[in-house]
Amino acid sequence: MNGDTINIALVGCGTVGGGVAHVLLAHADRVARRAGRPLALRRVVVNDPAKPRDPLIPREIISTDIEAAIRDPNVHIVVELVGGLGVAKKVVLDSLAAGKHVVTANKALLADAGAEVFEAARKAERTVCFEAAVAGGVPVIRALGESLAANQVTAIQAILNGTSNFILTAMAEHGMSYSRALAEAQRLGYAEADPTLDVDGSDAAHKLAILAQISFGVAAKPHEIARQGIDTIDAMDIRFANELGYTIKLLAEAWTGGHTHSTNGAKLSRGGAASAAHANGGPPTVALHVAPVLLRHTDLLAQVRGAYNAVLVYGDIVGETLYQGPGAGQMPTASSVVADLIDLGVGRAQRTFAAAKLWSREGRGFTVEPPERVRSRFYLRLQVVDKPGVLADITRILADEEISISSLVQHEAEEDGAGGPVPLVIVTHYAATGKFRKALERINALSTTAAPAVFFSMGD
Amino acid sequence: MNGDTINIALVGCGTVGGGVAHVLLAHADRVARRAGRPLALRRVVVNDPAKPRDPLIPREIISTDIEAAIRDPNVHIVVELVGGLGVAKKVVLDSLAAGKHVVTANKALLADAGAEVFEAARKAERTVCFEAAVAGGVPVIRALGESLAANQVTAIQAILNGTSNFILTAMAEHGMSYSRALAEAQRLGYAEADPTLDVDGSDAAHKLAILAQISFGVAAKPHEIARQGIDTIDAMDIRFANELGYTIKLLAEAWTGGHTHSTNGAKLSRGGAASAAHANGGPPTVALHVAPVLLRHTDLLAQVRGAYNAVLVYGDIVGETLYQGPGAGQMPTASSVVADLIDLGVGRAQRTFAAAKLWSREGRGFTVEPPERVRSRFYLRLQVVDKPGVLADITRILADEEISISSLVQHEAEEDGAGGPVPLVIVTHYAATGKFRKALERINALSTTAAPAVFFSMGD
Q: Are A269 and A180 in contact (CB under 8 A)?
């Protein structure tokens, strides 16, 4: 506690903000010891000052006046916990312009406007910290930016959406349907009333965009990242995957052509096209997607259960390292926000920010692989009418698109459903996503196909 | 690359040193970008300059002269990779006195002489970095010291010895005997010709001493840490544990009285005595040990296979986070050493070192719980003569020491061994280690006990 006090304004005091305020107030001595100086909570800006809050927060520091907090010359750091792109963006940009450092947990803002925010910070010679924006309490931003600084990351495989992982775990372990597992997640507070952004992969795509910027220097907008949600997964897919030796997880993945590291015997080498482009003298590319992926039961990420997050990083020097923990929730997220505040107190964060040059013109030479060229193996589940020639039609279409079949399972029709549609599961060898999609269109147009085809990526 | 070049002397160029040299030379541009300035390898000090080395290392920077490297005014950082306590300690202390920062992977030196080394660094106003000293490529030093800085750690459970974990995995998955698994580990290069320090828990105790300093401010000498190796584990213990639903892992553990966090349904709450002392107004205590521990199959650490390391940290704010990866090996360890060099280049490490006040008089109020007072459940396997009254004697002794039995399994004697010794497995409820040891002595003295009792801790 050698240094001067650092004063903090908290803009937004909902779940996470309340947690941050509590840690700063209840553990002020500890935080001061770790930061080398006191971190004082000076202002808390809220929408509704009448709402009951943590009794540790002095009434007199609560207000609705954002501008006053940002303009307060005694405030050194603004913590933005409003979320979203509107008010939050203005809070962040105005705070930087007013000479404040910013700590934020706002993944949408960074994924969408990272370049604008970081340019503003560099212009103002201030620092933006965002450990809490990806994977909540799991310190993956520091891992990628500092601990693995000797490495070029060659691939990332991550469970970044706890809601989806909770639902998939419930489906796998308790045989629940998707809708029942979702209802259970909502009942327990793991899913919101409108779960769309979680289950359609948007949330994970925002986080992947941030990790891709740190690891590959690419500025992929979330909507440019190929994205598939978990809402098409049927209980029977979980069963079929299990029979084949696989677990379905919603993964955010990034992999480069140079990635050849093998994990637990499985190989993440789907960057075929990327690799080819690089070998042909083109720039190195990185493939990005959020999708349900079939992982072997023994894969590290297959064993991540419930609402947890986990990030598996492959570095060209270290090999694979895994970071796992609570990806959301009040106190885990607050833990990461306060770690950023302590880093600013110590003076580490400023050094890191200046050195990392994120969202700047200084790229790392990577470009994003066009989704249609990304190569993968696929799990394909069809509902077909049980009559002669069906299989011949489907296999012909796949052959036309140069997709070969690795395995195929057709179960007998259930007794009472004789003659009706039966499930047919095909696992392909590596194929370009574009060609696979074309084959899908043709298969879906067959008169013998009773429902749109369901497909997921294979993790090996 | 805005800053001045930082010059590095590497003292020791064996496996890890060779890896560090390779990364600095083969990836000089990358390292300079990340560090914000070039990191130049200026001197490599070795025992035998004639030995073949990485062709990237210029012949003219290789010498045997340690003193010249340390005294060279152009050298800013000395990387000590000699290992051990003799020469290495002198290299580190002399380098600090000569005004150099030090990066080391030397767990024994820090565990044994951390206070002396850090005092010397503070006196010289220089920094000591040691990410590679614990868990090789897994960035657990940064996790505890920076990422989790908002937390008081309440418990650590860690697999810190890859050799032991490889052996235990081979025993569990392939039904190997201890000696055959050890031979296999030696054949594959995971175990040395003399594996004593790995399999008797010494190596893990060194690493635990370092983690305990960072997390609890205690300066436990490795020989003061209660320690039990894996060499008493028989293939039948692995089988019995498996029947009970457990996997045996060699764990380095630290837990405080305040720790009540539950993981995957299991509860690490063995700090009973510590808790009681604290509640009675005494100072908070932390229990430390290295021991084979029975973990439920679903526990995260039970699933860590082969030579991997993993560290599960419980923080009072974040809950549990897991860090996993390669705990040894040339390039993983080099990855951590170079990360430290980059941190010195960025200027982060100096801030961290000054703020953390490790091995200083500024403790955190914790004292180490005397081993005999540490409470645990125990797995106890006896070889008893199959005759009346045996069980009565044993259960009487346990009752005398206030140890109650949670479960008991006695298998029938095998056909050809009728009348001979049979295994008897007892799992106890919580008991103080001191009382348990006393009971063991009395049980071993029984005429019906055919071999010394084998016992391990239960993880829940």
A: no
Among A147, A262, A330, A361, pick the best mutation site for testing chain B contact (most B Cβ within 10 A).
A147
Using CA atoms in the order B218, B223, B224, B225, what is the torsion angle rounded to 10 degrees?
Answer: 80
Q: Say yes or no for a CB contact (<8 Å) between B321 and A347.
A: no
SS3 B108: helix
Question: Does the CA dihedral B438-B440-B444-B449 come out positive or negative?
Answer: positive
Please identify every stretch of chain B with a pLDDT value under 70, giving residue numbers as ranges: 1-2, 258-281, 413-419
Candidates A137, A321, A334; nearest CB to B137: A321
pLDDT at B265: 31
Please report the pLDDT score of residue A262 as a whole number.
40
All residues of chain A having their beta carbon less than 8 Å from the beta carbon of residue B264 are: 305
Residues 7-36 of A with CB under 8 A from B: 23, 27, 30-31, 34-36
3-class SS of residue B311: strand
Q: What is the pLDDT of residues A380-397, one digit of tens each?
A: 999 998 888 899 999 999
List the domains of chain A with CATH numbers: 6-129 (3.40.50.720), 146-327+364-371 (3.30.360.10), 377-458 (3.30.70.260)
Task: Give the span between the Cα atoms of B335 and A147, in whole angstroms.
Answer: 9
Chain centre distance of CA B238? 22
- Check residue A282 and report its DSSP letter: P
In chain B, the percentage of residues whose pLDDT exceeds 90 is 85
CA torsion sign for B162, B163, B169, B174 is positive
SS3 call for A300: helix
Residue A153 pLDDT > 80, yes or no? yes
Lowest mean pLDDT among A35-44, A363-372, B63-72, B331-340: A363-372
- Helices B390-400 and B433-445: crossing angle in degrees, nearest 10, is 150
Q: How far is A296 from chain B (nearest CA, A)?
A: 14
Q: Cβ(B294)–Cβ(B247) under 8 Å?
A: yes
User: Of B147, B303, B340, which to mutate for an interface test with A (greatest number of A Cβ within 10 Å)?
Assistant: B147
CB B338 within 8 A of CB A317: yes
Query: What is the rounded CA–CA span in Å between residue B130 and residue B310?
Result: 17
Active site residue: B207, B249, B267, B435, which one? B207
Give the chain B residue nearest A25 (alpha carbons). Answer: B150
What is the β-pairing status of strands A62-63 and A39-45?
parallel
Nearest to B111 by CA among B206, B38, B203: B206
Residue A338 sits at the chain B interface (C-beta within 8 Å) = yes
Helix, strand, coil fractions of chain A, as percent rounded to 5: 40, 25, 35
Residue matched to tokens 């239960």: B458
Identity of the amino acid at A137: G
